[in-house]
Amino acid sequence: MVKGIMNKILIKRANEHQDKTVLLNGWVYNSRRSGKIGFLMLRDGTGIIQCIVVKNDVGEEKFEQFKRLTQETSISVSGKIVKNDRAPGGFEIQTSDFTIHQISVDYPITPKEHGTEFLMSNRHLWLRSKRQNAIIKIRHQIIKATRDFFDSHDFTLVDTPLLTPNVCEGTTTLFETDYYGEKVFLAQSGQLYGEANAFAMGRQYNFGPTFRAEKSKTRRHLLEFWMVEPEITYCDLNENMEWAENMLAYIVAQVLEHKSEELAILERDISVLEKITAPFPRVSYTDCVEILKKGGFDFEWGGDFGSPEESYISQQFDKPVIIHRYPAEIKAFYMKRDSENEDLVLGMDILAPEGYGEIIGGSEREADYDTLLKRLKEDDLPVEEFQWYLDLRRYGSVPHAGFGMGIERTVSWICKLPHVRETIPFPRMHGRLRP
RNA sequence: UCCGGUAUAGCUCAGUUGGUCAGAGCAGUGGACUGUUAAUCCACGUGUCCGUGGUUCGAGUCCACGUACCGGAGCCA
Length: 435
Prior knowledge:
Blueprint (H helix, E strand, L loop, with lengths): L20 E14 L2 E7 L4 E7 H4 L1 H8 L6 E10 L7 E12 L13 H6 L1 H4 L3 H22 L4 E2 L5 E2 L11 E4 L2 E5 L4 H11 L1 E9 L12 E10 L3 H22 L1 H6 L4 H5 L7 E3 H10 L12 H8 L6 E7 L9 E2 L2 E12 L4 E8 L4 H10 L8 H8 L5 E7 H9 L20
Parallel strand pairs: 3-5, 6-10, 12-13
Antiparallel strand pairs: 1-2, 1-4, 2-3, 4-5, 7-9, 8-9, 10-11, 11-17, 13-15, 14-15, 15-16, 16-17
Helix pairs in contact: 5-7, 5-14
The structure holds one RNA strand of 77 nucleotides.
């Protein structure tokens, strides 16, 4: 057995070690046998490589051990990395020796098809599959690209609290918990704190988990999901839309550049993603209503778009579409009104193409103290809980704007998945808490 | 919470008008094979037909209720 960390390599780097003798640590993905030659597919999380086990090379006893290898048995293999076009990936290991760490017995997920209920119950094991591995890597790339984008534009990452005494928007149902006898809630957004952070840092983004206790059972909803929320001072609605579209275009470009193999595993149509370049089409809410009416929808100005409406609108474009200036009635208290029409707010949503719906929601914020106070009262929100938020309008208020992007919905769209539950390792959904 | 659907072997499913209907493929085990790609070939096993009640001479099949799951609506990222 080859020892030492210099010889211990990851499968993704196998091609850098051609004709070298190395040590690979991993798990059995699959194994086949054809008489005195065996094919062991070894996975280590970074990739899968074929290991050739020849009876005459490893000896009778080792070959008998090889025959007993089961799916997901943990194993270390040493051998020479050689180029071979017959091997998936172009390289394979000429096995000289291997060590079995633990034989896996009756691994439940076989290389055949399974239903989602079964797979979700075995989510802790399902993550080892090629497809889930690819999704996790793309999720990582999306998060990395998001952070790189903001970091390279002089934003500071600032964390916001998860335990909050007040409701942010007052619309959705929140998870309740106990703070030494006081009722507190799990954050549904970090935005209000993000605004305070932005006034301190100029440009900030917060990135963390958020919670919504809605009993939603759709392909777009999770109870616990991750959100990136940039907040930018001296920024209006138009600039806000520019930030959002540039960020999304960058994220898609980075995924295309660094995760083409993973996209191929998911059989994602790359040409659709290649079209995602800034600028994105911008349509006002009022124009959307016209689009819907022309499309045969029975839709009155003033209502919120449901899933069918969102799908229809996004299908009119092959890029994400930015919808702006919604009726104030259906949006949150902190959004600034349009000075040209007080019935509208300077808010915007971005709908992903291919029917994926809303992935970004944002707005220019109300910056005037008196107006904001009026809005809080209109919405019957507890003004005393918002004193610190009002302070931002009392001590050097400035125009500012920001948005929130749902990570899982973005991953779902970029990977073209049928359901957001596959975008996060352990999804929390209505009716599914375990594993 | 509301609407629609599904529930049969470890997994994916078939099962006709209610009458040898307890089935297939895969996985697993044993064997053959020195280039396999979800290998192939031969042999071997498996059941609370989701639960409870009902109709019937007879229910996996029909009915009612319940449970679990799936999809959708509302809410939103």
